[in-house]
Design a protein that fits this description.
13 helices, five-stranded parallel β-sheet, globular, 2 domains, 13 strands, 18% strand, single chain, Rossmann fold, eight-stranded mixed beta barrel, alpha/beta
Amino acid sequence: MVVTSSDGTRGDILVVDDEPTLLRGISRILTDKGYNVVCERDGESALMTFREREFDVIVTDIAMPQMDGIQLLRQLREHDADVPVVLITGEPAVSTAVKALEYGAFHYLTKPIPLGSLEEVVDKAARLRRMGRMKRQAAELIERSIPSHSRAPLENSFYKALDSLWMAYQPILRAKDGHIYGYEALLRSKEASLPHPGAVLDAAERLNMLDVLGRTIRERSALPMRDAPEGTVLFVNLHTTDLLDPTLMSPDTPLSKIAKNVVLEITERASLDSVKDVRARVAALREMGFRIAVDDLGAGYAGLTSFALLEPEIVKLDMTLVRDVHLSSTKQKLVRSMTQLAHDMGMLVVGEGIEIAEERDALVELGCDLLQGYLFAKPNTAFPTVIW
């Protein structure tokens, strides 16, 4: 099924190339497929055109005079963090691919371009662009649909949840001997109208109070560490918006004071696009002593991008990969490959969500370094001592 935009076309595409023949060729192909195509022969002109109107996809050559495709991509990201950019090159290089990844290129095509691949990539990019617009419209609609008389009760519930918020701690064990490596701090609340962590997070997002929730979680996560055994490692979850909170970098917070024993978990389920200077912020956190973990590996929002930006010391496999892993050869192959690749990059691998001994044994055999789940202990107010 071909999905069209409101004007009847498959989308608006900006094509940028200093080679007239290739520019006309790409334009003709995409126009014949139903796209509305605008052409520019250099990066500066493309940037001016982009600022004047909205496009679904940008297709640009990399090798261009003055402003090349990577420089154009970087400039585009300063104006729009989400527009898909497809880069084309006749001389593929690892360094160029890394830069493309760093600035969030949607795809990287090499010349000569297979016609089917070009249409497939552009069509997928245009669909995702439209989906992003619809999601933003839905979020705006939902926000507007919260009338003042219902917003007040939600705020009341949220502040009650904050007042009653407490942290539960679940042990993370070393796979080689079953001894405790550290603990993950998990959000809990006694507010009945927000009965689970997801409801609290959703309320915070709807009320634009994620920063307030994040600060509360970080402060309360650190409190029991005063009585924890020497060397105890604490895993604390961050929402991507927490990276923008200046208090995260403050040396005076309870969590910062124990930074050398803290691993900050950032989920792979969420986009980092809203944090434009991720590398600098993560570098500052490491300078303070924090380590970084990518959570939910395999959930797949933007795995390569998050790895390139975060360069984590620890990765946590998504629970869907862990569930019944002993029964699925496909999961076993995937976990083994991901674990080997992580080890090649110097990372520790955590298998979380383990509920039965068979899952534990499979993950140990597949090379996981650390293990976590109800099989060992449920989250608790105290730091439980567990050896399997």
